[in-house]
Amino acid sequence: MSHLKDDSGAKLGMWLFLFTELLLFGGLFLLYSAYLSRYPHDFSSAGRQLNVVFGTINTVVLLTSSLFVAMAVTAVQRGEPRRTLWLLGGTILCAAIFMAIKYVEWSTKILHGIYPNSPHLAAGPPGESVFFSLYFMTTGIHGLHVLIGATLLAWVGAKVKRGAVHSGDYILLENGALYWHLVDLIWIFIFPLYYLIL
Amino acid sequence: MTTVQPTQPSFWNDTGRSGLAAWIFSTDHKRIGLLYFYSTFGFFLVGVLLGLLLRIELMAPGRTIMGPQTYNALFTVHGVVMIFLFIIPGFQGSFGNLVMPIQIGARDVAFPRLNLFSWWLYIMGAVIILASLFTGGGPPDTGWTFYVPFSSRTGTNVSLAVFGVFVVGFSSILTGLNFITTIHRLRAEGMTWGRLPLFVWSLYATAWVQILATPILAITLVLVMAERLLGTGLFDPGRGGDPVMYQHLFWIYSHPAVYIMILPGMGVISDVIPVFSRKPIFGYKMIAFSSIAIAAFGSLVWGHHMFTSGMSDTAILVFSFLTFIVAIPSAIKVFNWVSTLYKGSISLDAPMLFALSFILLFSIGGLSGLILGAAATDVHVHDTHFVVGHFHYVIFGGAGFAFFAAMHYWLPKFYGRRYAEKPAIVAWALMFVGFNVMYFTMQVLGMKGMPRRYYDYLPEFATLNLVATVGSWILAAGLIVMLVNLFRGLFRGEPFTGNPWGGATLEWTTATPPPTENFEEEPVVTHGPYDFRGTGIP
Ligand code: HEM
Ligand SMILES: [Cu+2]
């Protein structure tokens, strides 16, 4: 019973929230595994239509961004606001690159007539249609999380700039970074499942 | 334990803002608790009205007051309102917020602003659900379960309703993580885990279920929306999908969700029974532990809703077995409550009457649940009125009656005034009789083969249906008496001060109504929650 700021409490709350986010994607991974066991051949022929190069670059981009945001936390702990801001800027830049690549990837697929409910998929084997519907849903919701995460970090960055987040009180940045690591982590599941193992 | 004379203003008076803004922007857990109470209880009354209309339609065979489409819409909206707008947010939101921080000796929850945000999300979700009734293709007609393929094809406004439920679910997740953090971080000095009131234990278990199960519902609802708006076909057999996958995802949430509904109610009962038996609770540890056990095992039994949907025999066997396992912790609680009564000095005040009837009604509901959990018997009564009777026994006779117990037990504490005892008992008696007349008859009807979700039935079911409808009127009469008596009492009744029930938990040591910061000074806990020595009542 105190009015003191409870940073461990805030972090506990954030961890619980991240857990719910993992479970949200868990539902999609559950569908993936059920349909993979039903349509192994369709899934592998569909998976090979995804562009591994794009996927790999995006993985590297996100891992780099995670590194940046971790360094930003260290920088703010050491009382270096300028450095923190640069590193946060780097993270957000990576997010933008990720989304740009995703955009190119999605639009080439759509140009080839591959999107939910497309006549092209309807004419093909059922497993491929399921695969691509799952692909668009999963990467779409993940992309939404990238946008939310980047906005969150930009908001924290503004606070760093105003001096509201500093070496004495940086729980917001720590929690923002945790969220960003989650976004990264989920991609680390998506990448092999959709691009590599099939 | 003497009662403190208030030197700080009570939470009713102390505020910078005025009027409505002092409430809907307040971060005080007690004000938020009352906001939740009035909004969820308001939806309960709406749901009751719809339920009564359903019963009137079923009073006689053939069309009585509405056609099939209206009936479909009404039972859907009745279910959605009762489940997503009343019972799931209701307990945590109202009594969890009102009582839990005080019971652990905290000034507020861990994240007061997030708490207010949860309520706003809940209201936004509710408004969206209400909007879905009057826009687009009209009120959804799928049942509260939104089963595909019907929910992805029907022309009614399913997308918006589902989105509303999604928003309410988000609110539920935030409340859950707020409560877990609060219980971990903000317990007063001396408030060890072994001294937590059992109501807090049950809220703790509930909060875990909320954050573990609700995300699955969220993604399932998103997929239904995608099915309708983008045509993803993930549940459409014509395009490689599988509707049974929807049912799995839905019940992975919705079975655990029944524990979100019932666990807080069990917590109330565990707090009320010892107080009105003047005896420490029997088996404190087992009751606390069984809440956790229910939360854990409850997440493994969802398949019992799908015995007739197409599953392997092995899966049916396993789910059936696990369903029987999960009945054990509930039974442990019932035995412990009954043992607490044994040789107690029982006083039959209104909260106690509701608590006692909870034990009976919940046991009937639980036992009929075993008939549904055994695959062999389930195939005969699946989707009949037996099921409707069963879950009303559990969520209405159980959680609902526990909610009424909590209203009579705790609301006077926050208003400083109380209801009259005699009318409260009359109301309880009417509701108890009406309840059993209605729902027991419905279970019998189900055994005889009357299906659920039909506005019409064969003539041989006519007499029993009439009986059930009359039961619903007795129940409604009791409800009206209760409402009038309770709310008149809270605003104009006798003063309620001190510790008239003789409770030993922390909320009875602070002023009535409590001050904004709950306690004059930080409490130090020196005894367990059911140690009645020193409460001044023999
Ligand atoms: C006076 C009170 C109530 C009455 C008269 C009533 C009546 C009914 C009736 C007749 C049905 C069955 C419709 C059918 O299958 O043909 C029904 C369904 C249902 N009721 Fe109630 N009920 C009441 C209270 C409650 C409460 C308190 C809850 C939950 C907290 C609840 C939850 C449900 C649900 C979830 C369904 C299933 C809807 C569906 O099939 O989609 N009811 N109710
Ligand atoms: Cu169940």
TrEMBL record, chain A:
All residue ranges annotated as the Heme-copper oxidase subunit III family profile domain in the record: 1-198
Entry protein name: Cytochrome c oxidase subunit 3 family protein
Lineage: superkingdom: Bacteria
InterPro entries: Cyt_c/ubiquinol_Oxase_su3 (IPR024791), Cyt_c_oxidase-like_su3 (IPR000298), Cyt_c_oxidase_su3-like_sf (IPR035973), Cyt_c_oxidase_su3_a-hlx (IPR013833)
Localization terms from the record: Cell membrane; Membrane
Cited PANTHER family: CYTOCHROME C OXIDASE SUBUNIT III, NITRIC OXIDE REDUCTASE SUBUNIT E
Taxonomic source organism: Oryzomonas sagensis
Main localization, broad class: membrane
Entry-linked SUPFAM superfamilies: Cytochrome c oxidase subunit III-like (SSF81452)
Membrane topology field: Multi-pass membrane protein
Organism taxonomic ancestry: Bacteria, Pseudomonadati, Thermodesulfobacteriota, Desulfuromonadia, Geobacterales
Gene3D superfamilies on file: Cytochrome c oxidase, subunit III, four-helix bundle
Sorted UniProt keywords: Membrane, Transmembrane, Transmembrane helix
Similarity comment: Belongs to the cytochrome c oxidase subunit 3 family.
Record-annotated membrane-spanning stretches: 12-32, 52-73, 85-104, 134-156, 177-197
Automatic annotation (TrEMBL), chain B:
Domain of life: Bacteria
Catalyses which reaction(s): 4 Fe(II)-[cytochrome c] + O2 + 8 H(+)(in) = 4 Fe(III)-[cytochrome c] + 2 H2O + 4 H(+)(out)
Entries under InterPro entries matching the protein: Cyt_c_oxase-like_su1_dom, Cyt_c_oxase-like_su1_sf, Cyt_C_Oxase_1, Cyt_c_Oxase_su1_BS, Cyt_c_oxidase_su1_bac
Domain Cytochrome oxidase subunit I profile: start-end pairs: 17-526
UniProt cross-references to Pfam families, sorted A to Z: COX1
Pathway: Energy metabolism; oxidative phosphorylation
Location(s) in or outside the cell: Cell membrane; Membrane
Keyword terms, alphabetized: Cell membrane, Copper, Electron transport, Heme, Iron, Membrane, Metal-binding, Oxidoreductase, Respiratory chain, Translocase, Transmembrane, Transmembrane helix, Transport
Segments passing through the bilayer: 34-54, 74-99, 119-138, 158-180, 201-226, 246-269, 281-302, 314-332, 353-376, 391-411, 423-442, 462-487
MF terms in GO: oxidoreductase activity
Membrane topology: Multi-pass membrane protein
E.C. number(s) listed in UniProt: 7.1.1.9
Function text: Cytochrome c oxidase is the component of the respiratory chain that catalyzes the reduction of oxygen to water. Subunits 1-3 form the functional core of the enzyme complex. CO I is the catalytic subunit of the enzyme. Electrons originating in cytochrome c are transferred via the copper A center of subunit 2 and heme A of subunit 1 to the bimetallic center formed by heme A3 and copper B.
Homology family: Belongs to the heme-copper respiratory oxidase family.
Protein name: Cytochrome c oxidase subunit 1
Organism: Oryzomonas sagensis
